[in-house]
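User: What would this chain look like folded?
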Amino acid sequence: MSPIAITPPQEGETVTDLTHAGIEEALLKNAPSQLKSASLTNSITATPPPEPETKLQHTVETPLAELDASKIQCKYTESPRPVPAVGSAEMASQKVCTDHMVQAKWTVEQGWEAPTLQPYGPISLAPTASCLHYATECFEGMKLYRGHDGKLRLFRPDLNCKRMLMSTNRIALPAFPPKELLKLIVKLCATDGKKWLPKDRPGQFLYIRPTMIASDPALGVERPKEALLFVILCCFAPMGDMSGGIKLLASQDDMCRAWPGGFGYAKVGANYGPSLVAQGEARKRGFHQILWLFGDDCTITEAGASNFFVVWRTKEGKLQLVTADLNERIVLDGVTRRSILELARSRLDSSASSLPSSDLEPLEIVERKFNVFEIEEAAREGRLVEAFAAGTAWFVAPISGIHFRGKDIEVPMVKGDAGAYASTFRSWLKGIMWGSDGMEGHEWGQVIDEE
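Assistant: Here's the prediction, encoded as structure tokens.
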């Protein structure tokens, strides 16, 4: 599978444009193995496009050292931390991490140093560190699951690692081979998983946060010369169903999460901090999250930090599953989003000649630009079937209502607490993640051998 590596040029641009050229140059220095197989795409797709006709000319003599998980140096804690009880306030605080963490340092002179597995603890940064001033930071959100069959699993972790490479490239941080990051994540999960997700807690998970920050102490506004990659495992409360569904407040005209030519497609910290004011106000008014709209036509992008899906009937009576496309690069190519689309196409696509047996009506799967006025019209005409948000944190969360310009759009939930399609996708994915319902051997679930 080809890794994400290079932000694609816009229509009419050439590969000598500034952002693209800078990313390719950084790849050549920091991870030349990725440049050879780099896909000129901003999505986590398996099939690279044709090679561009124009190539940049490079004269770099010696590549820097690449990230190499086989060189990891391990130092185990002498002060093990207690595991919080399920349902405790300590677990729900999202502040308690496991005994160990992984770190790897990068410098512009040497490249990647040998990574370390070490006791969890604070990171030392200069007050002038680039990440503290210029948002030179990116991360991923993943989970380690304790299956109902007793096994530890990751869910499609290769996609997260490839997306993180794309994010680091966009935010001027060093490149790396995604498979090496995955090996480091697996090592940490194998080390701490047995204790922190014991077998008597099936159906529980730990949140995995791979992060890269620019640790360069120089205060100048320039490409960082030092960076730190680290991976931690954090305790989260058990994932419960959203009783009554999620209520969304459509963003106002003075709010904008992402824009064409920006970085909404990358998982960088700068996407999240500016949204917290609006998110806080939404919650004060009784809503769970913001439905982010863009432009005068109120194009739908994301629901909070999750991808947004709607099921409706067209005026001609065709049943569709619709979500925003990735063409303008203002929507994150979520792993849960991608998985839902792939499951829908293999099991529910109305254009398929044959489908596995299902109680659900087949539908057309559509990725396109659409707006809140279309949802409003579908609800008014009785064509709106359901809507849901999808992401690692919220998983598959049914939506019960959208408040837009002073009016409430009621969203049906035929099963009481969810729509039929959201409920089905949630069930299918849970089976893969937790090794149940006949999905124990699914290729998307990577089993971790515990140490």
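The radius of gyration is 22 Å. If you want, I can go into more detail on any region.
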